[in-house]
Amino acid sequence: MKFLLVFDFDHTIIDENSDTWIVKCAPEKKLPNGLRNSYRPGHWTEYMGRVFVYLGDNGIKEDEMKRTMTTIPFTAGMVDLLGFIGENKELFDCIIVSDSNTVFIDWILKAADFHKVFDEVFTNPAAFSSTGYLTVQNFHAHRCEKCPKNLCKRKVLKEFLDKQLERGVSYTQIVYIGDGGNDLCPVMFLKKDDTAMPRQGYTLEKKISQLAQDLSPVECSVLAWSSAIDIMSYLKLLIKE
């Protein structure tokens, strides 16, 4: 009996968007209008690439970025939840699927000593160049019409499950914890024994309830959360059953 927990990162594990938080490093803590207005829907990663060039051009170094990123607060109750999962790793496999990047997630999880809780992190690959600029790439290519160009979370989840099956690992239940519009695609892939846990008042919850109103509800159970303590309570019930 093993459960798979799938977490989004921004506004789910941390209570902010890591990509917009980095702007605190910029001169006067803001971006020039031309750069800010250069974002095109579905092309966030390219936009962040330009932000990182701007930071590099302004002499913002890795250690300053790291210091800024590790001040991001975790979502209410999240520290307790991750501690609980860490103590029960024999029951839970735990992955992150995020539109952030490897450098940011790595910094934040390691600073709080939570990196051991997660078996794998699927996010946009990032690295510092020889000149000290942070660079980011698209996670993969995909054909999904609903998702941003760089990441289809359903594809990631499906490929992970296929790989686990080849290793002889299957899950009693998948619990998907997220908040954003790009979490809807993987939630629609979940089966009736699985559970989607959208963050209360955020886009994912609104999109799931819109589907129910349009009489095409998702197949899985839906349980909204406002504090990660709600998620922990649900996981404790699962273990008891």
Automatic annotation (TrEMBL):
Binding site for substrate: D19, D99
Amino-acid positions noted as binding Mg(2+) in the UniProt annotation, renumbered to this chain: D8, D10, D179
Active site positions: D8, D10
Cofactor(s) the protein requires to work: Mg(2+)
GO MF term list: metal ion binding; phosphatase activity
Pfam family, one: Put_Phosphatase
Organism domain of life: Eukaryota
Keywords recorded for this protein, A-Z: Hydrolase, Magnesium, Metal-binding
Family: Belongs to the HAD-like hydrolase superfamily. PHOSPHO family.
PANTHER family named in the record: PHOSPHATASE, ORPHAN 1, 2 (PTHR20889), PYRIDOXAL PHOSPHATE PHOSPHATASE PHOSPHO2 (PTHR20889:SF1)
NCBIfam families to which the protein is assigned, alphabetical: DKMTPPase-SF, HAD-SF-IB
Name of the molecule in the record: PHOP2 phosphatase
